[in-house]
Amino acid sequence: MSREFCDKEKKRILAEQQENNKKIYLLTFTLIILITAAAIYSLFIGSAQIEWRDIYRVIFSGSRGMVYNIIWNIRLPSILTSLIAGMGLALSGAVMQCILKNPLASPFTLGISHAAAFGAAFSIVVLDFSAVIENFAFLEGVYLPSAAAFLFSQIAVVIVLFISRQNRATAETIVLAGIALSSLFTAGTTALQFFADDLELASVIYWTFGDPGRTTWNQLLIITIVFIIITAYFIYQSWDYSILNAGDEVASSLGVDSAKLRLTAMTAASILTAVIISFVGIIGFIGLVTPHIIRKIAVGSQRQLFINSALAGGLLLIISDNLARTAFRPVVLPVGVLTAFLGAPLFIYLVIKGRQYW
Amino acid sequence: MLKVENLSFSYSREEVLKNINFTAQKGELITLIGPNGSGKSTILKCINSYLKVEQGNIKIKAKDLLSYSKNELAEIIAYIPQLENYSFPLTVFETILMGRKSHSSWRASQKDKEITAEVIAKLDLGDFSCTNINNLSGGQKQKVFIGRMMAQQADLILLDEPTNNLDLKHQLEIFELIQAEVDKGKTAVVTMHDLSLVSRFSDRIIMLKDGKIYSDGDKNSLSAAKINTVYGVEVSLKEHNGSQVIIPERVVV
């Protein structure tokens, strides 16, 4: 091959690569536009009728009436929580699938979500957190369950990591172990509910339904801070995660410590999941489904996959939450129920199609 | 370049390598041959530091293997395993770009991308640059992995059965690519089963039997008696253009 031809070919390859990148940036841009549109549209969705001029008045005239309360204290926190929670869950799913080399992995299918819910229930029923709140007023009634949710999610993470390190562990084995863990923690939560008094029972049930509408601005701030820190970490490490796709032997030969990377990534992804679940409740399948949708649309770098999966997760949850609030009006479904209805068939499809799919 | 001294290794209680000793010079292509389970891949994994050396010593560029950091080793040693499965789609460009990881920080620089594009052009894979690696044939995939190794620009290259399951054309193509790297002054340690290809391309052939070195000699050191002892197969050897062609005749019972 002549030097001249090689140089020409090199330029063509770089140009083609840039063209491919442009397509992926276009996808990112489209997702941002769709999120903005869905978020604005969501401001108008709900039991109270709100019009453009009401929103204009709240923003520009400083109106402080009922409309202000609906927009500022109910709809806006709910929309932003859907966005951040959806983004966080999708990102956690993408990271877990990548580091475990497992297309069926997600916080929900690995049992991490259920472990977190059990932790929250445990703190409500056993640790008697009302007493704690009296002593520590700043806890505002939710931070202890969040901490417990995180601790129990880590137990599930340790078990999943242990199983995934076994030589014969396939993608399906890990998910089967996840199902066993989910059943175990769900049984634990049910047992706690059995022994709980009325108030505790109501709290626990309230926890298990995923609903972005329940968060306060302070809780949203916590979720957002955790999301930003962990996302920055994932994006910084994304090239290493991409290399894990080639297997541990290749990763090692390219200078990547796969065991350390897997442990830190699982911990970070489960912190993000636990924080979201502890404030929003269980929302299944967003973490599983969105990375697959993005992979189907465009093949790019791991960093692009993480960013686009997160955006698509945010968009999916905003749309799902709107649907959950309006589909069976006047009944408002918890969004977790709706995502399960949408996600479970896709999960079954992935299991049936197996490797042909990806 | 590479010195392996008294290397022994066990998987749980089973000893798979027993007192292995050999050296490899700059610009030398060494093939490790022997039946399945004779310890060929384990030697590569020990040199690559994927398996922790329990007994013995491995020196790279006159320095102990353990004195290098993971990243430093990645700049010196490139490795292609026997099996490489990708669970998720990745483009050919991104796969070859991986080879630049140890040379860069958290993201690929423009120089990394240019090196990658140059490798793709040299390998004549330009039409597949943005193709999902899982959609390529076995031969094309192996070329991509060789491309990643070229982008890594390491001085010592380790390849575990690089021509397995490949058609004749791709087998030859892959070996010519390895030979080209060796001609540039790199050192290659390759495990192989096709003894005729081994004889044609190797500078030295190391035969392994039950985790021990049975023979260590030049490209014409294969003999019917040695192959009979190591593989339990009767063969005929013919001379062709300065290398040996090995024709299997029958299994020795």
UniProtKB/TrEMBL annotation, chain A:
<feature type="transmembrane region" description="Helical">
    <location>
        <begin position="142"/>
        <end position="163"/>
    </location>
</feature>
<dbReference type="GO" id="GO:0033214">
    <property type="term" value="P:siderophore-iron import into cell"/>
</dbReference>
<dbReference type="Pfam" id="PF01032">
    <property type="entry name" value="FecCD"/>
</dbReference>
<keyword id="KW-0813">Transport</keyword>
<keyword id="KW-1133">Transmembrane helix</keyword>
<comment type="similarity">
    <text>Belongs to the binding-protein-dependent transport system permease family. FecCD subfamily.</text>
</comment>
<feature type="transmembrane region" description="Helical">
    <location>
        <begin position="331"/>
        <end position="352"/>
    </location>
</feature>
<feature type="transmembrane region" description="Helical">
    <location>
        <begin position="24"/>
        <end position="50"/>
    </location>
</feature>
<feature type="transmembrane region" description="Helical">
    <location>
        <begin position="70"/>
        <end position="96"/>
    </location>
</feature>
<feature type="transmembrane region" description="Helical">
    <location>
        <begin position="306"/>
        <end position="324"/>
    </location>
</feature>
<keyword id="KW-0812">Transmembrane</keyword>
<feature type="transmembrane region" description="Helical">
    <location>
        <begin position="268"/>
        <end position="294"/>
    </location>
</feature>
<feature type="transmembrane region" description="Helical">
    <location>
        <begin position="216"/>
        <end position="236"/>
    </location>
</feature>
<dbReference type="GO" id="GO:0022857">
    <property type="term" value="F:transmembrane transporter activity"/>
</dbReference>
<keyword id="KW-0472">Membrane</keyword>
<feature type="transmembrane region" description="Helical">
    <location>
        <begin position="108"/>
        <end position="130"/>
    </location>
</feature>
<dbReference type="InterPro" id="IPR037294">
    <property type="entry name" value="ABC_BtuC-like"/>
</dbReference>
<dbReference type="InterPro" id="IPR000522">
    <property type="entry name" value="ABC_transptr_permease_BtuC"/>
</dbReference>
<protein>
    <submittedName>
        <fullName>Iron ABC transporter permease</fullName>
    </submittedName>
</protein>
<keyword id="KW-1003">Cell membrane</keyword>
<dbReference type="GO" id="GO:0005886">
    <property type="term" value="C:plasma membrane"/>
</dbReference>
<feature type="transmembrane region" description="Helical">
    <location>
        <begin position="175"/>
        <end position="196"/>
    </location>
</feature>
Automatic annotation (TrEMBL), chain B:
<feature type="domain" description="ABC transporter">
    <location>
        <begin position="2"/>
        <end position="235"/>
    </location>
</feature>
<dbReference type="InterPro" id="IPR017871">
    <property type="entry name" value="ABC_transporter-like_CS"/>
</dbReference>
<dbReference type="InterPro" id="IPR003593">
    <property type="entry name" value="AAA+_ATPase"/>
</dbReference>
<dbReference type="Pfam" id="PF00005">
    <property type="entry name" value="ABC_tran"/>
</dbReference>
<dbReference type="InterPro" id="IPR027417">
    <property type="entry name" value="P-loop_NTPase"/>
</dbReference>
<dbReference type="InterPro" id="IPR003439">
    <property type="entry name" value="ABC_transporter-like_ATP-bd"/>
</dbReference>
<protein>
    <submittedName>
        <fullName>ABC transporter ATP-binding protein</fullName>
    </submittedName>
</protein>
<keyword id="KW-0547">Nucleotide-binding</keyword>
<dbReference type="GO" id="GO:0016887">
    <property type="term" value="F:ATP hydrolysis activity"/>
</dbReference>
<keyword id="KW-0067">ATP-binding</keyword>
<dbReference type="GO" id="GO:0005524">
    <property type="term" value="F:ATP binding"/>
</dbReference>
<comment type="similarity">
    <text>Belongs to the ABC transporter superfamily.</text>
</comment>
<dbReference type="InterPro" id="IPR050153">
    <property type="entry name" value="Metal_Ion_Import_ABC"/>
</dbReference>
<keyword id="KW-0813">Transport</keyword>
